[in-house]
Amino acid sequence: MSTQIEESETEAQEQEAEAEEAELPAEQEPQTPGDRRRAEKRERREQETASEPVAETDDTFKMKVFRYDPEVEGKMEPRFDDFYVPKKKGMTVLDALIYARDRFDTTLTFRHSCRQAVCGSDALFINGRQRLGCQTQISDLDTPVRIEPLPHQDVVKDLVVDMEHFYDQMEAVEPFFQPDETPGDELEEQRQSRENREKVKMSTRCIWCGACMSSCNVAAGDNQYLGPAAINKAYRFAMDEREGENMKEHRLNVMDQEHGVWRCQTQFSCTNVCPKDIPLTEHIQELKREAVKQNLKFW
Amino acid sequence: MHEHDVLVVGAGGAGLRAAIAAHEEGADVALVTKLHPVRSHTGAAEGGINAALRDGDDWELHAYDTMKGSDYLGDAPAIETLAQDSPKETVQLEHWGMPFSREDDGRVSQRPFGGLSFPRTTYAGAETGHHLLHTMYEQVVKRGIKVYDEWYVSRLAVTDHDDPEERECHGVVGYDIKTGQIQGFKARNGVILATGGLGQVYDHTTNAVANTGDGAAMAYRAGVPLEDMEFIQFHPTTLPSTGVLISEGVRGEGGILYNNEGERFMFEYGYANNDGELASRDVVARAELTEVNNGRGVEDEYVHLDMRHLGEERITDRLENILHLARDFEGVDALEEPMPVKPGQHYAMGGVETDENGETCISGLYAAGECACVSVHGSNRLGGNALPELIVFGARAGRHAAGTDLGEAEISTGETEETEFEDGLDTPVEPGAVATSDEDAVADGGTAITSPDETVRHAVENERTRVDHLLEKDEGVQQAELREKLQKSMTENVNVFRNEEGLKQALEDIREVRERYEDVYVNDPSRTFNTDLIHTIEMQNLLDLAESITLGALARDEFRGAHWRQEHQERKDDEWLKHTLLSWNEGTPKLWYKPTILDGEKEYEPKERSY
Ligand SMILES: Cc1cc2nc3c(=O)[nH]c(=O)nc-3n(C[C@H](O)[C@H](O)[C@H](O)COP(=O)(O)OP(=O)(O)OC[C@H]3O[C@@H](n4cnc5c(N)ncnc54)[C@H](O)[C@@H]3O)c2cc1C
Ligand code: SF4
Ligand code: FES
Q1: Burial level of B41, CB count in 10 A (0-12/13-18/19+)?
Q2: What are the residues facing B454 on neighbouring strands?
Q3: Counting one residue from A and one from B, how many pairs have CB atoms under 8 Å apart?
Q4: For site-directed labelling of B224, which of A259, B2, B309, B375 has its Cα 20 to 30 A away?
Q5: How remote is the CA of residue B153 from the centroid of ligand 3, in Å?
Q6: For B219, phi and psi rounded to 5 degrees?
Q7: CA atoms lying within 13 Å on the CB side of residue B549
Q8: What's the longest Cα–Cα distance across chain A?
Q9: Could you tell me which residues are beta bridge partners of residue B546?
């Protein structure tokens, strides 16, 4: 295994591994011919270019990135790779990851797309906290910057986690608008008061990044817990005045079940990490109150 | 092999709307998308969606503004359809619960946008696209429409007739990003491409990293013409360091542009004496760059966009998201200081040639959204006109593919008697003709495969061979290096300002990258989530699209809309009221033209555009 460093803007040089990485199990016999050739070539290159590890300098910073691939020899045991990336004004963690991938190691794998905090695909565990890579300035972080996949989710490869469970929970709360009736005329608007829109506004901002779910101790322990994002999604509809009373009751019943709102222990970790500043814990508390009110009504 | 009636490739605004429409018509429909639907780039749209909803406004005004904005290169039947269908499609979104911004009476709010004669841009804060995308995805979940997410479509399954217009599309080849499996998807009725923009051809763009123009490039190689590719919109207000967009809504609400001397240059230097900052995008982008080129830019790179005078309350109410963008991506507090902005690649007006029902010249193949060119934007798109395009033409393509009769299209596709061929363009290098690209063409008229199942199977086989080859090869050049070279050359040579020398330079660079791409290899041997492989496949799409943009730009020796040519500073209506078309012809691009349709229900007389 090797560590990549930056010598000059264009020249990447491979580097002897640091102690913690040197202890990895020896590579087994590679499987495919491509695999084998690649391993041989890597070995040759390492012999040619091995040199002292380079320390962080004034213009570069060190990034420790989690690596794992269930399929590739040598990467089956999780490890951290170091990358030395030149600092640039305004550089985000995502920029640095892209830099490291494009210049040093094209096998480095992470999800990303919009670069502007709306697609929700690059939620990562950065210096011990869930954040969007694209929304996090390197200058705001202590170095070395440590980058890991979201905790409590299965790792698919490197920084990519399996989101299926998160999607399932989101879809479990009937995440779609169910008004009592819709205007018959296709050009007539349904209307919503400004106040009501304000009320649900924050809850509609969720980008399905999964940061909240990953930060939640309860969700980590209870796989069936709907989790902050899904409950927030339910809130978005339950509080929308255009859905009728019956529907609201139905939604509160979904929230009122064993793995619904009552699991929340108001630890605020979801609220703290949400990149869209959604007051998740507050929304969950409000639904708890509504659920109580509704039960009182039944009595 | 998976099998459905209608396959929609891409799950942004256009793809989701198409899938819902096809489902409503009773078709068994599936979405295949390389990103999970809510990650699509439609989510980044900020400003709003144009729809003539209010008294004093009507579809005719909307159509007129759009035709004028297009610099008379839009086709009237498409523009009129857009303007007529947008109100009901927009209200449909409202009925689906989209959280639009609201007026005191509870109706949806509208605001002014560049080039519009009425404030008809309907919006949801400065995050209209996010809400539109999520609202439609919710409807997809509600209907239980099948979604194959993180499946990359890399090839179309098209029959092998000699003449593209006789070809039929029977499905696509998909690559499961999570497992590396390659599988066929058969579409009994039709395939709808909704793969979005191509911003990654440039290095400074508002577009997502996933916007690599895959659908357009695949259709092109299958024999469908690409239309009006030279028209790339550069948005005047993007943040200099990342390309993140600052919505036109800021200027719509009254934001002002200043040069480094604090002058309001849109008026001071007479770029748009009537509309100032709210002139059409091409006009503002050129004004900004002219300021910078004349030494009046800030740090020789950008200008300032100031919204402080709007007041905190109005800003938080209508443009809150802009505050976050300026802070997170440029470190600027827009309540305290002006935002630095410069033009960046934003939108492709050109794309897969379709008629107003979304169909291409290959039967069973449709396109909608930014990857398509139904020709509503002509040479310059008005802000707020892309989102209605997604829902209007997405819905039409969905319905048509599901078998609904939408009537005979007025726009013709493919080569017709009306088309005019270019004898040959004076290019410095022979474009396109490189071995693998040639093999990669979907149908080459070589083997006579016509049965649907065989067509899909054959395409799958070809794709497996290509991927195996890329993964087996263990030396050569990597895509990242090529991508950077291509993006730099396009930004330098095929940008807001263009001249013959630069365009030829770009063609030479593209040719060089194309040759080096022959030797490309994928470093990552893994079948699991191999982004290295995906980016390598995308790279070829970028190449084909960059070439078509540049060839179109070289051919069009006039100045129209977003296409500015140094040597040709006038709009030449006598010669150029026509669309450029490029089609893939046995390994090389062929260039031809078809006339613009200026008569619809109304007639549109080309006039000087002034703002
Ligand atoms: C920052 C920004 C702001 C904008 N603001 C506005 C605005 O205010 N108003 C307006 O009218 N317009 C706006 N636009 C333009 C408009 O948002 C876009 O044109 C539009 O969203 C494109 O939608 P789409 O459905 O065509 O594509 P996208 O939303 O980009 O979706 C493309 C889909 O295709 C999929 N895909 C791509 N390639 C493949 C493949 N090979 N295999 C499988 N799936 C694939 C992707 O996964 C994705 O789901 C804006 C654009 C940008 C970039
Ligand atoms: S609620 Fe916030 S943290 Fe949770 S998924 Fe949505 S945006 Fe991410
Ligand atoms: S890349 Fe889209 S949220 Fe970060």
Answers
A1: buried
A2: none
A3: 179
A4: B2
A5: 22
A6: -65, -40
A7: 37
A8: 80
A9: none
Yes or no, beta carbons of B134 and A137 under 8 Å apart = no
**Rounded Cα gap, residues B560 and B539, in angstroms:** 29
Q: Which residues pair with B565 in a beta bridge?
A: B498, B568
User: Strand A79-86 vs strand A123-126: parallel, antiparallel, or unpaired?
Assistant: unpaired
Question: Strand pairing of B351-353 and B226-227?
Answer: antiparallel
Q: How does DSSP assign B193-246, residue by residue?
A: E-----GGGSSSBSS-TT---HHHHHHHHTTPPEESTT-EEEEEEE-TTT--B-
For A204-231, give one letter per residue: b (16+ CB within 10 A) or e.
bbbbbbbbbbbbbebbeeeeebbbbbbb
Tell me the C-alpha distance between B405 and A286, whole Å.
49
CA–CA dist A142, A157 (Å, integer): 25
Q: State the nearest Cα–Cα gap between B422 and chain A, in angstroms.
A: 39
| Contact (CB<8Å) A186/B528 | no
Instruction: Give CB contacts under 8 A, 24+ apart, made by A19-28.
Output: A20/A79, A20/A80, A21/A79, A21/A80, A21/A81, A24/A74, A24/A77, A24/A79, A25/A77, A27/A73, A27/A74, A28/A73
Identity of the amino acid at A141: L
Strands (E), chain A: 3-6, 12-15, 60-67, 79-86, 123-126, 129-132, 145-148, 155-157, 160-161
- Is the shortest distance between the CB of A248 and ligand 3 below 6 Å? no
| ipTM for the complex shown | 0.94
What would you report as the CA-atom Rg of chain B, rounded to the nearest whole angstrom?
A: 23
pTM: 0.93
- Write out the E strands in B308-390: 339-348, 351-353, 365-367, 372-373
Structure-token match 């229900």, residue found: B601
| Residue A266 tokens, joined | 């108001």
B102's tokens? 């609201």
Partners of residue B101 in chain A, C-beta under 8 Å? 197
**Sign of the dihedral through C-alpha B217, B223, B225, B230:** positive
Measured at the alpha carbon of residue A105, what is the angle toward residues A101 and A106, in degrees to the nearest 5? 65
